[in-house]
């Protein structure tokens, strides 16, 4: 998981709100007529052909392959290896983006998209196979559906389609992605299945709880941004018009 190009590194919810308001102000100033650097993106932000982007694209390409392995021939061993490889590339793309200075807008979209797709498709496949209950899929999907309702509000305020990911959101996603290989391992027999079962469900419970806690914090951030936006509009309306010169 990688940061967006130019994103702040603070993990707290309040830091995210402050960073977004600063980013919106900077973007408005940069795009003003006659502003220095108007309409010029941050260096490298619009790059497409980068190593981190290639790794994210590779992860996305693995989603249908994973579904086929789990739902078709029930090749759980190969599916398990694919999930592990996905986890490795998820770590590498963020690290390489920072090390090589290759953070980009496309990468900031591809990386969380790959995470969401793996979570969604893996849950659907595991529910169909009877490995996890349906209520788990509903509980996690409900959170994303609720947050999707904030997208028009964020766009209307000029903040883009999503808030920066904070630490709890990263931890929740990591726990869920760690849980899936162990859940697949429970379909076998012997000591590996026995050990994997409690480990898998520990990750599932921690990930699910953190997933919802992170969702509540995101909603609180949206509310803070709405208040700041209303206050800014009120100040704009209250400001006296400049006399005609």
Could you provide a short overview of the structure?
The protein is mainly alpha-helical and 245 residues long. It has helices spanning 13-30, 51-71, 76-99, 105-128, 134-148, 151-156, 167-185, 191-238. The protein has one domain: CDP-alcohol phosphotransferase transmembrane (TM) domain (Four Helix Bundle (Hemerythrin (Met), subunit A), Up-down Bundle), CATH 1.20.120.1760.
How is this structure best described in words?
With 245 residues, the chain is an all-alpha fold. The protein has eight helices and no strands. It has one domain: Four Helix Bundle (Hemerythrin (Met), subunit A) (Up-down Bundle), CATH 1.20.120. The N terminus is likely disordered.
């Amino acid at each position: 998981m990688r940061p967006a190009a130019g994103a702040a590194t603070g993990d707290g919810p309040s830091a995210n709100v402050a960073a977004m308001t600063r980013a919106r102000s900077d973007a408005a100033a940069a795009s003003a007529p006659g502003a220095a650097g108007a309409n010029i993106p941050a260096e490298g932000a619009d790059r497409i052909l980068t190593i981190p982007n290639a790794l994210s694209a590779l992860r996305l390409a693995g989603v249908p392959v994973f579904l086929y392995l789990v739902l078709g021939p029930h090749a759980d061993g190969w599916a398990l290896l694919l999930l592990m490889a996905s986890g490795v590339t998820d770590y590498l793309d963020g690290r390489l983006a920072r090390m090589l200075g290759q953070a980009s807008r496309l990468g900031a979209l591809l990386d969380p998209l790959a995470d969401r797709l793996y979570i969604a498709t893996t849950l659907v496949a595991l529910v169909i196979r009877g490995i996890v209950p349906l209520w788990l899929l509903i509980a996690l999907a409900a959170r994303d559906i609720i947050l999707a309702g904030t997208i028009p509000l964020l766009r209307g305020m000029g903040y883009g389609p999503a808030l920066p990911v904070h630490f709890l959101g990263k931890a929740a996603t990591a726990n869920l992605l760690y849980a899936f290989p162990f859940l697949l391992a429970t379909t076998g027999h012997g000591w590996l299945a026995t050990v994997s079962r409690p480990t898998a469900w520990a990750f599932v419970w921690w990930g699910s709880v953190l997933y919802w806690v992170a969702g509540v914090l995101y909603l609180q951030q949206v509310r803070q941004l709405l208040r700041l936006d209303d206050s800014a509009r009120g100040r704009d309306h209250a400001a006296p018009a400049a006399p005609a010169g």
